[in-house]
């Protein structure tokens, strides 16, 4: 687990995560991944992990909690 705090209050939430995951070295073996965040983030990272690292879809738990720019009441 890695915490990625935003230093720019105007940055879109989750922008740091894709670059961090793409630059990370995955451990040997069959990893299990959990990805959560702004709605577009988990889906994009799941695709990357499946296509680029061969992680089986069943080994990736992912959920989008909110949509950037939309209130919870939309």
Number of helices: 2
Query: DSSP strand (E) fraction?
Result: 15-25%
**What is the ordering of alpha helices and beta strands?**
HEHE
Work out the radius of gyration.
13 Å
Short summary:
With 74 residues, the chain is α+β, with helices and mostly antiparallel strands.
Q: Which descriptors would you attach to this protein?
A:
74 residues, alpha+beta, two-stranded parallel ribbon, 2 strands, 18% strand, globular
Polypeptide structure, described:
This protein has 74 residues and is α+β, with helices and mostly antiparallel strands. The chain has a domain at 31-69. 30% of the residues lie in helices and 18% in strands. It has helices at 16-23, 40-53; strands at 33-38, 60-66. A two-stranded parallel sheet has the order 1-2. β1 (33-38), α2 (40-53) and β2 (60-66) form a beta-alpha-beta unit. The protein starts with 15 loop residues before the first helix and ends in an 8-residue tail after the last strand. The mean pLDDT is 85.
Give me the secondary-structure topology.
Layout lengths: L15 H8 L9 E6 L1 H14 L6 E7 L8
Parallel strand pairs: 1-2
Helix pairs in contact: 1-2
């Amino acid at each position: 687990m890695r915490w990625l705090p935003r230093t720019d209050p105007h940055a879109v939430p989750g922008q740091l995560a894709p670059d961090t995951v793409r630059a990370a070295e995955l451990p040997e073996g069959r990893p299990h991944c959990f990805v959560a965040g702004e709605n577009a983030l988990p889906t994009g990272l799941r695709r990357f992990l499946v296509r680029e690292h061969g992680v089986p879809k069943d080994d990736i738990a992912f959920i989008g909690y909110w949509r950037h720019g939309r209130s919870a009441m939309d």
